[in-house]
Amino acid sequence: MAQTIDRVRVLDSSGDPMSVKGYIVAMRWAIHTHSDKIFTKLSAEDPQTPGERRFFDESGAFSTAVRSLHYAPSLAKLRQPVLSAALQTGTLVSPELGFSITIWECLLPAMKGLRFIGGYFPSNHNGTLPYDFDNDKVIMKPKNPFRLDQTSGTFFGIEEQVFRRLVDTSRQGPEVLREFRRSERTTTGYSGVSYLPDGHILGQIELFRPVATDIV
């Protein structure tokens, strides 16, 4: 796997390659339908990129670029292709262009006070939500309440303040992410929802509800 890192070159301001620590992790899962010769396996390596000098982020531009590239695929998943392209290419979006967003809350007590920009991936092609709306009230109402073998979908989102900072990045440049702070709250209290320090959240759609819309 180390050959993958060998193809990466990180250059300083003079164009000289610097040695950067890399991490490669590969996993293979064995399930009950596999043969007895297949085992679950985890492989990890930490090779260095080619270079005579140890890496030092002289201007901070490298870390901000990595952060931009980290969030670009997530913005694409949130159906924000313009924002995603801006972070992917390091270009700027006109301030005259606004973006429609839906703001959600997680129903778990441990996540109280946090809001997320996101949506859900349905478990079937119908894409039905597990609740209805009645005079701005959310009513939990599975479409097939008698069937226990059906799920509605998976929610995916980014914490609201992180998302708004990404929008600012698309308009002002990657330097906005230089002061980015990881979230200190990562424990959701329930295995059905995962919340990461970078603001990403993933979980059962039944544990989230839309609370507002906005233009940013």
Class per helix and strand makeup: alpha+beta
Basic shape: globular
End-to-end distance = 42 Å
Query: Describe the biggest sheet?
Result: 6 strands, antiparallel
Q: Which value, in Å, is the CA radius of gyration?
A: 21 Å
The averaged pLDDT comes out at: 84
- What is the share of helical residues? 10-25%
Return residue spans where pLDDT drops below 50 for at least 5 consecutive residues: none
Key terms:
216 residues; alpha+beta; six-stranded antiparallel beta sheet; three-stranded mixed beta sheet; 4 helices; 20% helix; 29% strand; globular
Give a quick rundown of the structure.
By secondary structure, the chain is an alpha+beta fold. It is 20% helix and 29% strand. The radius of gyration is 21 Å and the shape is globular.
Structure description:
The chain is α+β, with helices and mostly antiparallel strands and 216 residues long. Helices cover 20% and strands 29% of the residues. The protein is built from four helices and 13 strands. The strands form four sheets. Strands 11-12-10-7-6-13 form a six-stranded antiparallel sheet. The protein has a three-stranded mixed sheet with strand order 1-2-5, with no helix packed on it. A two-stranded antiparallel sheet has the order 3-4. A hairpin with a 4-residue loop joins β11 and β12 (200-204).
